[in-house]
Design a protein that fits this description.
By secondary structure, the protein is an alpha+beta fold. It has 7 helices and 5 strands. The protein starts with a helix and ends in a 23-residue tail after the last strand. The relative contact order is 0.21. Bound molecules: flavin mononucleotide. Flavin mononucleotide (FMN) binds next to α4.
């Protein structure tokens, strides 16, 4: 199969963390999420473990409870980080934290929340365990985000709710052996014209045949 690189490269280069441009008024059909998750589980896992589990939340009361929890644990930190970046004149970082603060204030309005989980807790903190554990779920999460973007939807990978992972587990009735990895607000995007991020070139941080 020959891919259309204009399309694939645009998808890879313009899939952003979408917060303020989530369309809060347009419902997200469950079928689209199911379709994107079928693509996500084509991602690799260490030892073909496939320990991923996906909790999709479209119940308004549960979204409201998760949003309240997120705001409680995240907002203070995000506001401080935004103010600090603004004071230092770090424009891009200040904009990210401003957007993240907006999400903390508006998460209760998003059409859907997806929480990627792993069945089985991180065994220990050794480098192979850490890499194998998170490396067996985050590629699938990114595939999910790419599949959403290809269909006109957006998402943002967030992790701050894990400060009160137990509280979120209670809201969702998750057993102790299921570890939450992230929380993604999901919705259609307002417009689809997302841009490449401004990043230093990869050539400046690439080492060939050694450091
Ligand atoms: C591991 C990880 C954790 C993140 N946690 C949060 C978070 O808790 N809240 C949030 O609003 N964004 C979070 N983000 C999104 C980042 O802020 C975002 O990816 C970054 O600013 C770059 O923006 P871009 O994805 O649009 O290029 C997280 C991203 C990653 C990869």
């Amino acid at each position: 199969m020959i891919f259309d690189l204009t399309q694939t490269d645009a998808l890879l280069a313009t899939t952003r963390a979408v917060r303020k441009r989530l369309d809060l008024d347009r419902p997200v059909p469950r079928e689209i999420i199911a379709e994107c998750l079928e693509l996500a589980v084509q991602a690799p896992t260490g030892g073909n473990s496939q320990g991923w589990r996906w909790v999709v939340v479209d119940d308004r009361a549960k979204i409201a409870a998760l949003a309240e929890l997120y705001k409680t644990v995240a907002r203070g930190y995000l506001v401080s980080a935004r103010d600090e970046a603004t004071e230092k004149g770090e424009g891009q970082t200040a904009r990210v934290y401003d957007s993240a603060t907006w999400l903390a204030d508006n998460l209760h309005l998003v059409p859907m929340i997806v929480i990627p989980c792993v069945e089985g807790r991180l065994p220990d903190m050794s480098p192979p365990s850490l890499s194998g554990y998170y490396g067996s779920i985050l590629p699938a999460v990114w595939s999910f985000q790419l599949a959403l973007r290809a269909r006109g939807l957006g998402s943002a990978l967030t992790t701050l709710h894990l400060i009160d992972e137990a509280g979120a587990a209670k809201i969702l009735g998750l057993p102790d052996h299921v570890a939450q990895i992230a929380l993604l607000p999901v919705g259609y995007t307002r417009g689809t014209d997302f841009k490449r991020a401004s990043r230093p070139p990869a050539s400046g941080i690439t080492h060939w045949n050694g450091w």
